[in-house]
């Protein structure tokens, strides 16, 4: 009989894992349905390039709240109960999904409503991300943290596999069905978060919130391992943002429609789930730096292959490899952040990391939309993949301490 992973023996961690799983399903459903609906509405009266540009603008609408709030939220997550912050954020996301479900039900979903909801979802994610990332290490002993991080990745990636095809399928039934299902998943997430009992938190800081914020940013800036890992992900994903153009590829390049969009969106997460499962059973322990750089380079090459493909099966395979490579990078970066950061700074450091990740994702969508507007979707994706490989080489040269990193434990929190 397979052995149950040790973190799952902890009640509060099980509730956290389930909350992360259902939140990811709901969030991915919202991303794919809002993106497709924006592109579908735009294509009714605009060119492919103009519709792709609006997809980029949706990314910007989600990023601006994150940019404005992320660092402040990190300070809050280090001063207040992280469970309460996560609950409030999920409640906001639940409300957003419910509003779109109601608008779709009455048959009136204007483009403006999609942009407003996208921005509000950005607010929710700004609070949810750092608070949940900082909460996770409080639920398991330190020696179980690498395994818990891999299991966290499985929960996120599993939800990311199920969310897109489920959202696409339910959208094909009706938009209100898709938004309604997302509302239910956010509701389950909220219930799971209420199951988690109070956790031991660091003593409240005596310094001012502003000084506290500055300390968090300074900690990342001076820790070359963390700075290199976080910034590598930022620029690689910023350039290699193939997923932003998936509605374009589904409708106008591969000609598979909304039914094909779900599998395309799920393929990266399917690859990531496989790798995360392997890492949960056999966590990476040696050569963590070289492995991270290699995985980001593979990510860039897979992005390039996807950009050039006109075959649906080949595109799925490229996205699968892309996701598998990204999962390795995510695991290494997540382990470095959690193991190298004192608990009383985890909220702030997680917020800095979350800001970089959000910048790479949402600004990556904006970059892809702008590039597609002027040079076309295919050239923008191909150039982005090549750019991600170039960034990997530059960062390997610029951050030798990260390139040579062997074990996660070589550097302890300071």
Give your account of this protein's structure.
The chain is mainly α and 414 residues long. It has a single domain, classed as MFS general substrate transporter like domains (Growth Hormone, Chain: A). The chain is built from 15 helices and no strands. Helix 5 packs antiparallel against helix 10 and helix 10 packs across helix 12.
Tell me how many strands there are.
0
Helical content stands at over 70%
Oligomer: single chain
Please tell me the overall pLDDT: 81
Number of helices: 15
Number of domains: 1
Question: CATH H level: which superfamily?
Answer: MFS general substrate transporter like domains
Give the SSE order as H and E letters.
HHHHHHHHHHHHHHH
How many strands, which pairing sense, and closed or not: the largest β-sheet?
A: none
- The percent range for strand residues is under 5%
Distance between the termini: 41 Å
Q: Which class of secondary structure composition applies to the elements?
A: mainly alpha
From the 3D coordinates, which CATH architecture would you assign? Up-down Bundle
Taken from the alpha-carbon principal axes, the silhouette is: globular
Class in CATH?
Mainly Alpha
Q: Do you know the CATH topology?
A: Growth Hormone, Chain: A
């Amino acid at each position: 009989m397979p052995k149950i992973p040790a973190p799952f023996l902890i009640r509060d961690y099980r509730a956290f894992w389930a909350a992360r799983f259902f939140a990811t399903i709901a969030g991915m459903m919202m991303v794919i349905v809002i993106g497709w609906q924006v592109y579908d509405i735009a294509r009714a009266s605009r060119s492919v390039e103009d519709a792709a540009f609006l997809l980029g603008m949706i990314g910007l609408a989600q990023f601006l709240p994150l940019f404005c709030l992320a660092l402040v939220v990190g300070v809050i997550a280090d001063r207040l109960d992280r469970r309460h912050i996560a609950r409030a954020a999920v409640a906001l996301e639940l409300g957003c999904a419910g509003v779109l479900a109601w608008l779709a039900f009455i048959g009136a979903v204007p483009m403006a409503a999609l942009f407003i909801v996208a921005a509000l979802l950005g607010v929710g994610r700004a609070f949810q991300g750092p608070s949940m990332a900082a909460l996770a290490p409080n639920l398991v002993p330190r020696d179980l943290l690498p395994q818990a991080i891999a299991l966290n990745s499985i929960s996120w990636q599993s939800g990311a596999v199920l969310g897109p095809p489920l959202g696409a399928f339910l959208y094909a039934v009706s938009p209100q069905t898709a938004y309604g299902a997302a509302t239910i998943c956010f509701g389950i997430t909220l219930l799971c978060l209420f199951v988690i009992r109070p956790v031991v938190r660091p003593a409240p800081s005596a310094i001012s919130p502003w000084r506290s914020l500055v300390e968090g940013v300074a900690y990342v800036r001076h820790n070359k391992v963390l700075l290199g890992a976080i910034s590598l992900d930022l620029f690689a994903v910023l350039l290699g943002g193939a997923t932003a153009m998936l509605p374009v590829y589904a409708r106008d390049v591969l000609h598979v429609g909304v039914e094909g969009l779900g599998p395309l969106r799920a393929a990266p997460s399917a690859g990531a789930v496989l790798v995360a499962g392997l890492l949960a059973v056999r966590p990476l322990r040696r050569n963590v730096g070289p492995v991270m750089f290699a995985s980001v380079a593979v990510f860039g090459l897979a992005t390039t292959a996807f950009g050039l493909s006109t075959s649906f099966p080949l595109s799925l395979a490229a996205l699968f490899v892309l996701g598998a490579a990204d999962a390795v990078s995510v695991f290494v970066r997540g382990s470095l952040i959690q193991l190298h950061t004192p608990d009383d700074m985890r909220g702030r450091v997680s917020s800095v990391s979350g800001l970089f990740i959000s910048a790479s994702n949402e600004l990556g969508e904006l970059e892809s939309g702008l590039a597609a507007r002027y040079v076309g979707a295919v050239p923008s994706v191909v150039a982005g993949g090549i750019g991600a490989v170039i960034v990997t080489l530059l960062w390997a040269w610029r951050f030798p301490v990260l390139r040579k990193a062997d074990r996660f434990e070589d550097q302890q929190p300071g």
